[in-house]
């Protein structure tokens, strides 16, 4: 029999299914939109602002928190995700009841069925797992559902991020016609920098055990992605067979140096005997990319200044990465395996990548024109973007802290839905520390015996008559 807690979950699932079905049936009013435009001249009304705030709370804060609670198998996972689902439904209907600004057919609305289907799937799988059906065929099904539930749950933040971007673009009527290409480039590359910063934060705080298990250095994975991304940019930044226009050559050259440097970084990520080794290539690539973007020619003075600050911030990220590896870590993976928290300097590179991503996403042609017409200075705009970067950096660290603290507790449950604890803040479990200390003690004894034996053997050999 289902538990009492499952009833509200099923109700939420039913409501979401109805909401997703209503997407195709609902028709937006578009009678006030001028021909050739994406939005009407009306302002965003209060109902739409509430829709934005509620969906930001539900999808941007509650669901990611619930995801982490699910990973650590917390009893709060279901209540938190249920609360988020209810708010998401309320926000959905608010989005269809607003007045004021009208919108044409857009990616944000068309993506709603996709994200709703993912959420419904998660809820259904969650209900199945809560029923704990493990006998007979359910035992095999459960294994598959556990893995699928975990994968889809970790995919949700990416899907939510895409929908948020679609929402912002739709609200302003941006990224249409001739602006689609440069708009996509800014949002994809900016999101990539932020994602890179988040991954570095995760590895810094809780990923060292996983990294050691792979037998690879962090620079191997960084260089692999850099090389792959460079190959894509080399052949997509210019439409081959046509004339070179605007910044095509600079973009293509940047793609070339990425895959060239990426291959070098992959090669240098191992020592001669096959052990993982740190290297500076990813940091150098980030620095050179920032230098190139700081000198990127723009049409508007405001755009030129914002691109310069973006380039300087990216250069700073590359420089701090080089300093971290060379002088703080001295080619080690961590400062000290017995210290639970990383060095304060190590937080700089990830944060600067967050800031670089927001600066680049906020520097599209249409955004720059809008701000320039409103006489907004680059200083004010950059400070706002840095503020947003600080908030996301804070939220990411809070989620990682929630995960890490749960693994410090000896009362953590362990089953198919709860991954094996990854350790304390820098990725080392207390058990690992004790085992390593014991191994080092035994190894020290062996080394001492050998070292003491060699002088005795040498001494005996010297005393043996020829």
UniProtKB/TrEMBL annotation:
Domain of life: Eukaryota
Protein YTP1-like C-terminal domain location: 160-403
One Pfam family per UniProt: DUF2427
Parts of the chain that traverse the membrane: 49-71, 78-95, 107-131, 151-172, 184-207, 219-236, 248-268, 280-297, 309-329, 345-363, 383-404
Residue span, DUF2427 domain: 32-132
Signal sequence interval, chain numbering: 1-25
Transmembrane helix as UniProt keyword: yes
PANTHER family for this protein: INTEGRAL MEMBRANE PROTEIN (AFU_ORTHOLOGUE AFUA_6G12730)-RELATED, PROTEIN YTP1
Protein name per Swiss-Prot or TrEMBL: Integral membrane protein-like protein
Source organism: Periconia macrospinosa
